[in-house]
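>> received
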Amino acid sequence: MCIIPLVNLALTDKPDIRIVITCSSASALTIAPRGDRITSCLVPLDLPDEVDRFISALKPDVAVWVESEFWPHLLEQCQSSGAFMLLLNGRLSNKSYYRWTKYGRNSFHQLLSCFDVIIPRTQTDLERIQSFGNITCETPVDIKADLQGVKAKYKKILGRRGWVAGSTHQEEGRVVCEVHQLLLQGGINDIITIIAPRHFSPNLVSIVSELCPSSMLYHYSEMKSQYSCPVSFLNDQASPAVVIVDTIGDLADLYSAVDVAFVGGSLSEMKWDHNCYEPRNAGCSLVLQGDVGACSSFVQVVDNCLQLATFIQLKLSRTKTDPTHVPSGNGAINKVWAMLKLKL
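>> returned
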């Protein structure tokens, strides 16, 4: 929900504005904001009649797309409505770039041409977008880098004893537990492993109970209901623990509590694309396996479970947080709103 700060700025600066946020998943919809001047809903099915009814009812003056939500009918009909169209944090993953390049260069060029302004996330994304033809882009800026770490809610509370495995896939739960056990065997007797799966499954609870019998098992939802600062509670405990994050919207705060993060998707047989910017902007050292794409300049690549545990142990043994940092967007949200305000 990196768009929320932009939404809040618009609501504050323009009292008569009305905003509609569309979400592509039910989980995103549950945390999307609602209010007197803001509505959140699922994005319509990308069918001509469905999209036509949606755009006709909405009559947008401005339409903002975030990252890579390229719905062809919605793009084309929104452009036809006369709305000013912005692609914010525009990105193309390795997989998407390969598919569009091989199977739909002309089609993708047509979709990109629907936008009045494109602001890519990185220089790599800019080059990929422009490889599809004469596409004008603004200077790349990552709005997530402009926002992450602003709160730094937990300020590295867990420091030298905790790590986060974020956005993990189902088959990675077992591997993360094996790493937890290796860290215990390596002498970190109070290690705290925080697992934030992409999709929570009771099966993960069974795996943790089976593979980490000597560690306390916590559900983050229960901790939040009992403690004002769940991470401080964890830090006050002397025993090792595994925390399963079964809530939505807490991962960024948890990244801010640790020095080391593993981003899920890289240990599964299907090599998923990694969103490394959220933990990196929170000040974490990152560790991944396999192809890391645009993140190669600031991550540690490992080949197996033992290497993963070794790297984490090495990082946790240091006395200070890794100082390297991804630069922020330098007020990107304010610049974007200044541009959009002129169109309203």
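>> The chain has a mean pLDDT of 84.
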